[in-house]
Structures
1.
Amino acid sequence: MSDAPSTGPLRVLVLGGGGREQAIAWACRQHGHDVRLAGDLSDASTDDTDLVIPGPEHVLVNGAADECARRGIPCFGPPSELAQLESSKSWARHIATDLAIPGPRWMHFEGPDATADATAWWRNMGFDIVVKLDGLAAGKGVSVPASERETIAAIEAAGDGPFILEERLTGPECSLLALCDGITAAALPLAQDHKRIGEADTGPNTGGMGAYAPAPIPYATDELLAIFVQPLLDHFAAQGTPYVGVIFAGLMITNAGPRLIEYNVRLGDPEAQAVLPLLHSDYAALALAGTRGDINSIPLKIRDGSSVTVVAASPGYPGTPDTGAPIHDALADTVSNDVDGTITLRFDAGVLDGATAGGRVLAVTGIGPDLGVARTAAYKRLDAISFPGMQVRRDIGWRAPGASLSTYAAAGVDIDEGTRAVEQMKAAVESTHSVNSGRGVLQGVGSFGGVFSGATITELHEPVLVASTDGVGTKVELAASLGQVRGVGADIVNHCIGDVLVQNARPLFFLDYIAASVLDADMVADVVTGMAEACRAANCAVLGGETAEMPGVYQPGAFDIAGTLVGVAERDSLLPRTDVAAGDAIVGLASSGPHTNGYSLLRMLFEWVPKDVVPEGMDRPLGEALLEPHRNYLDPLRAALDADTSPIKALAQITGGGLPENLPRVLPEGVGAEIDLGSWPVPPLFRLVEELTPRMSTDERYRTLNMGIGMVAVCAPDDVERLQSLIPEKTWVIGRLVASDRAVTLN
């Protein structure tokens, strides 16, 4: 082992001039080193250079490290032979496959038959693919087609190649940046890049529109190094060509574990701008130690807190950018230390004489005690910068809030606590049920709605009244923030209609309650209009309600709504029937969205995403999907409920608690349910939630959200076909009742 690297000032030459190289230079200067930047070795003398740090991949592919070796200058980067890890995706995939490094299924194509062969391979494999040009493409040589037409077009655009097709994996991505000395590696904080040009990861790929660190990935960096980096180091060392420099492993965290997306041979851009400001250790000293095979001689110290980097790009990027526009920056200094303890940095990339000179013009980085504070600092700094047509993603870090959640309680709502509250109040409520000689209350606490016999009021024998009181929950906050409140008026009515419908009651009248810090007459009118429209559709009257103005109780601009609906049913037709039994089938009706449940989670997941964007796979803006009103199930179920010898034995509305906690409410003792996941199409919004919450279990997710099923009907197996024929829309057999202790199993 060689002597430990000097801790004195070094003369460092950084190759490249983009934002990544500016961040490398900044990191080195923080420890007193003399740093120069040059495009490549031909642009600068190396006679007085102690260390060369190549920034972009092309200088390494073109042999910068090889030339440094000939000149006897330490260079923290691999020789051109090993730089093929980035310059040849097929070479990298072959090595990764030989070393059993987990990744997607793939195939290389080249030559006049490449298009036909690739198309045939894709069709034969039967899965979605990613098309990658087999060479350097500045982060833009990747196509992620979303349809058959787009897939064929992407393959045809690749021409004769060379290119590779890879199985399209799903899950959050992260960047593992490993500093390697030929024998071992030290990892910088995990980062998450934002490759797409548009919010919610939409549009074409770019070189990177922003990044944050550390990324909340459920794997330790040492574990990831052992899987994706150490095998490479061992392999190259055994070949007599030790790898010195950065290995950037682009990973995807799938349901089956982490998988390799690609290797790069340098720090990422903009990951470097996010990660290096978190490094307390001397980056130049680390790099020099790496060239001496002794990177562990420099302790790797990371700053507490988080960083967020946001890129500002020219109009036209990632295509042909428009350049030459003047840049206005109200804060002339590059580094800003704010009174709240945050630090902000500006790293120029495509800037020349105060004007735009490239696709990605500059990046700003905010550093703070947590991700939210760092993000706010970065965007505040960016607000001081402008140039014509400036492209900025407004959602950097948007995947982070959901990445660490494992339960709905972590979003501020505890379903179990609500269940315990019902159990604790049950005895007190049931103590009132002895009135009228016990002839009044038929179903009480724990049912979807209270059932009270009309005979005790009217002295009639058959009619019973069914009542439901409920609210809309935190969906109202989202509606208020987007100025779209009419839908929540329909939400409360239709939610209550569903609660009495499951007992086979038809709605009679509805009473509403609206409270706010300060009442806005226009807002109240809009909400009540939504209620009235929903009531008219259900042949139900709005009798009136209550409005309350409570400053100091509600935050300014916030409001809440609740309502009570009363319906009527024939006593001998009440649901659930007494013949519900193991073996019965469960038929699901589609929800229109999250309805009124799970919004504390949803608001947290999408807090940093503009609600006017259309995420991939969806056909409308995110805000519209989140605010889609709760649907009314009376019309689709009317014919089945009113039929002679109705096939429906029981109905359950899928509200808070999801399928696992709502189905048992209509099941007798000794009967449970099995639900077959995959038996119905999960809508795109819920699939996106699955992707954003990798640590949340399936059971927890299905307890929190309806996942596309808003109402279920129970019937005998022989009645399934008849029931489905009586419902004028697509339904699915999603499971069956089984002998168990009222438990629901998700298969």
Note: The radius of gyration is 31 Å.
2.
Amino acid sequence: MTIAPAQQSSQHAGPYAWYALAVLVLVYAINFIDRQVLSILAEDIKADMGLSDAQLGFLYGTAFAIFYTVFGLPLGRLADAWHRGRLMALGLAAWSLMTALSGFATSYAQLALARIGVGVGEASASPAAFSMLADYFPKHQRALAMAIYSSGVFVGLGLSLPLGGWIATTWNETYAAGGAPLGLAGWQAAFLGVGIPGLFVAAWVLSLREPMRGAIDGFPSPIVVPGAWRAFARELAAILPPFTFWTASRFQGGLRVNLIAALIAGIAAWLLIVTFGDPAQWISYAVGIYAVFSWTQVLRHTDPPTYALIWGRWELVIAVLGFGSLAYFTYAYGLWSAPYAIRTFGVGKDVAGLYLGIPGAVASALGVIVGGRLSDAWKARSDRARIYVSVLAVVLPLPFVWVMFHTAQFRTYYLLSPLVYMLSSLWVGSTVAAYQDFVLPRMRGIIGATYILGSTMVGLALGPYITGKVATVTGSLQTGMLSLFFVAPLSLVLLWVLARRAGDLESRKFVLAHAAGERLELERRLPT
């Protein structure tokens, strides 16, 4: 049986869609400011708490990423069944509060707990935003919209460096003789300074109008699905041990499979701890992997069409790994570029933040938008276009990275940094659009969560930590940064495999979903 592809809509997004997009970009920028500000504060935190580079990598990456990923899965499902604007507003208020509370941390454990809270709150934002944008913008404008939204990542990344560096430096200079309010250090004041404004923006997000789900693609469906929060509670039980065992036991043979998966994850964590140390890193990572497995195990029984289109196709697993490997570079560079400049060239936090942050923000936003436009234009001529744009993001930055981490001049370093930011960000909007192409409209929230899963579990949870670990073992942050070159060949192989299957992934989604039990949305796709 074959199913005809949908007629591409010729309509264009209206003014309100662009207004909503601007608000969502602001939310994403705040998202990343609160996440990224730790980079420019890393040297002060390291000194005050006596941390290693590997521990800093854990705080920036794994402590945040695991909970961001794990909670992103049920929150992605909730975004497909409840008010997306309200969900984002609640999440924004939560992560802003936890960022502010980071300013009162006095130990490694307290700061780790606050970072976990930031991760849980931020997990609500992108799945809901991706879903809303896919309903605001027709298919032929969708990659551009996703790219513009994704540019908020890099706007936040860039602004976090000068903003955090300026607050910390000014605070330390003002209270150099003592008497700081509440006895706070500059880095603690910086967390408060970037966290509190998000509480006010959350009220603005509540005012956004919800677009009708699927209407722009000809498949309107209700915004709110009855029992959405009960379903969310069941989703949570599917990822949080020990509730996972009870959830798995509801399906024939499920408990046995789940227990085996938990045992394998535990053994793997033990082996990694014995080999590399850092128990917090590998216990957290094993728990995250096990939680994702438990969730997909339940999804297979509760929503077979969604499982079939995402986890039932080996190509999508390749996509998660391949696109995630691009994020590995992005996050590692995002954390360590400023500390490297401070250590190597002896510049202050405010100088490093200014020279690396603002140019990096502008260049990254430009790269994301250019990548999205290129992806949309190229897609009209090739089913593989979105993957090819990601290949460019792997290859083009490498020569500049090599020069940056071998130069003895700060001027050369900061002049090349925007080029690296721009070229390495080409993939973001194109990747999100590629994921959206592979699934049905009702699955847009959960595929957004799947995108986040790859970028965090592969990229954020491993990139900053492994780079920091290499730096800790070798005593050289330069060596840690140059270790990123070993990831590029793996990325290219994964993307090559995915590109060969991209056309089939998109064209056969209706057939596969129908075979897995999808009915209502596909009735108009079936041949008469």
Note: Residues 88 and 125 are 5 Å apart (CA to CA).
